[in-house]
Design brief:
Blueprint (H helix, E strand, L loop, with lengths): L1 H28 L2 E2 L2 E2 L18 E8 L2 E5 L2 H9 L1 H4 L8 H6 L7 E8 L2 E5 L1 E2 L2 E2 H7 L1 H18 L2
Antiparallel strand pairs: 1-2, 3-4, 5-6, 7-8
Amino acid sequence: MKRIIAMALVALLANQVAAQDDLKTRKEHLNLKSELAIQGYDPVSYFEGDEAKEGKKSITHDYKGATYRFSSEANKSKFIADPTKFEPEYGGWCAYAMGETGEKVKVDPETYKIVNGKLYLFYNFFFNNTLDDWNEDESNLKTKADTNWSNTIKSSN
């Protein structure tokens, strides 16, 4: 009986170590500033209107190493119910850059597009709005971005 308990404890410990490693890897790939995702913008707001809204410091939720802010408790509840629906693609990095070169490039959280129910963010600084370039070749860039992102994740494992 002691042997079974010892084996169960070892298995439990191994699972905890693996989960911590997965969390560490995930955090390495997310576009975070001090663990804050989308520069504090409410991920649910992108799906509810014509503009992204900044979240409130008082309404947050931590999800797998990232802290999300919300403009309302209702949006926080929606996120908690289905976080993968609202998290930005490619870890919150610029979708265009991920498709074009596979690089992790910062974004302007107010420059975005919803495609097939997924949130894509884009670089928009210094007279360079990559959403315009994305729109010119979205299908091709999305396919490349999906591949590049998958390769980025695999290379860290």
